[in-house]
Design a protein that fits this description.
alpha+beta, Dna Ligase, domain 1, D-amino Acid Aminotransferase, Chain A, domain 1, 5-stranded parallel sheet, 15 helices, 34% helix, 26% strand
């Protein structure tokens, strides 16, 4: 087992990794920008190293600085967390080349699944159903028009090398496609330095269903059930729950088998999430995330499995600590993402947290690096907390989340807590009757 792990991330996920290491008796090294010198994970880690100024490109994306910090502190492994360098295959390769263990999948699998077109081809070979679309990337408007005639409209133009809604446009006819392709290419180039795009059939009312996988690269593969991540704004997840209120037992068993069989065939290692669109009883692969997910806590709540601990064990060479028959998925869990944003305009709201009180009680978990007088910096993602609840039933979890949101105090900055309170009062959500476009219709952002 590792003696010292460097955490190449920040915020709540860095604190989450620190906690897992501490429970395993592993020392931690926190790297941080000058903007994060007072961050909670920096204060709690055994050692800390400043790796640059606030801009992510000069700190959390600064590979030489991170590797230097690992050598200086004698870290024998690096956990990348999520975002930043978590799905950067060259970084994973460099970590291993420097004699340090990368806590995550192999660089080959990161590279394969990071290219959305290659990932789709791999999914087909692995027996995973995919959304009908173009055969590879489309370089010109003319090629896109030809693909559109074969696949049909509406069509979704998607960046081949990115995610998070960037480099993505909907085209409902040929005229819109002519504008959507160059717009998506330009945005993809700006955000991912890769202007390649491809086309997929646009589904009008799908749910976003993802399967949480753990695999040890030695033939051991398990799933921890599905998560419903359909509540989204601008392709950004807002709230997740498990199990999905939109699946029945037969559908759940089907997609679980497809996912685990595919990862066993691939020889995958570490935690991973296979994401699908689900409509009219059919699943369609959209991508695979080769990292821990923001929403991983709800899978932990219903399974009792510590996903970060298992990532670390697997990276050390240990076989998976569970068989599928050992996993008992129990109850219902919900996660609300709390962002430092205005709850209606979504304008970022960095600044000092003048008072802070996290909710508690049976079945309530708060993953956050906030504390009183902490200053939320303006340089990074606005996610500042994840409020997670677990109940014996969905209704119990809903009631518990409503109570927990009422208790949560974060003063000095705007947060999206009022938005979540509004969502939990919606009859559609309470009935589980929603899809990936529902939230924007609910908020009047889309008809």
């Amino acid at each position: 087992m590792f003696e010292k792990v460097l955490i190449a991330n920040r915020g709540e996920i860095a604190l989450r990794i620190h906690r897992a290491c501490r429970e395993m008796g592993i020392k931690t090294v926190a790297v941080h920008s000058t903007a994060d010198e007072s961050a909670m994970h920096v204060r709690l880690a055994d050692e800390s190293v400043c790796i640059g100024p606030p801009a992510a490109r000069d700190s959390y994306l600064n590979i030489p600085a991170i590797l230097s910090a690992a050598h200086i502190t004698g870290a024998d492994a690096i956990h990348p967390g999520l975002g930043f360098l978590a799905e950067n295959a060259p970084f994973a390769e460099m970590v291993e080349e420097h004699g340090i263990t990368f806590i995550g999948p192999t660089p080959e699998h990161i590279r394969l699944m990071g290219d959305k077109v290659a990932a789709k081809r791999a999914a087909i070979e692995l027996g995973i159903p995919v959304v009908p679309g173009s055969d590879g990337t489309v370089e010109t408007v003319e090629a896109a028009i030809e693909a559109g005639r074969q696949v049909g409209y509406p069509m979704l133009v998607k960046a081949a090398g990115g995610g998070g809604g960037k480099g993505m446009r909907v085209a409902r006819d040929e005229a819109e496609l002519k504008e959507a392709v160059p717009a998506a290419q330009n945005e993809a180039k700006a955000f991912f330095n890769n202007g390649e795009v491809y086309l997929e059939r646009y589904l009008d009312r799908p749910r976003h269903i993802e399967m949480q996988i753990l695999a040890d690269g030695q033939g051991g593969v398990i799933h921890l059930g599905e998560r419903d991540c359909s509540l989204q704004r601008s392709h950004q997840k807002i709230l997740e729950e498990t199990p999905s209120p939109g699946l029945n037992a037969t559908q759940r068993a089907k997609i679980s088998k497809i996912a685990t069989d595919a990862m066993r065939k691939l020889g995958y290692k570490s935690a991973g999430t296979i994401e699908f669109l689900f409509q009219d009883g059919e699943f369609f692969f959209i991508e695979m995330n080769t990292r821990i997910q923001v929403e991983h806590p709800i899978s932990e709540m219903i399974s009792g499995v510590d996903l970060v601990r298992e990532q670390i064990r697997i990276a050390s060479g240990a076989p998976l600590g569970y068989r599928q028959e050992d996993i008992e998925l129990s109850g219902h869990a919900i996660e609300c993402r709390i962002n430092a944003e205005h709850p209606e305009t979504f304008r970022p709201s960095p600044g000092k947290v003048t008072s802070y009180l996290a909710p508690g009680g049976l079945g309530v978990r708060t993953d956050s690096a906030l504390y009183q007088n902490y200053v939320v910096p303006p340089h990074y993602d606005s996610l500042v907390s994840k409020l997670i609840v677990h109940g014996r039933t969905r209704n119990e979890a809903l009631m518990r989340m409503r109570r927990a949101l009422e208790e949560y105090v974060i003063s000095g900055i705007d947060t999206t807590i009022p938005l979540h309170q509004k969502l939990l009062g919606s009859p559609d959500f309470l009935n589980g009757d929603y899809d990936i476009h529902w939230l924007e219709r609910f908020m009047g952002l889309k008809t």
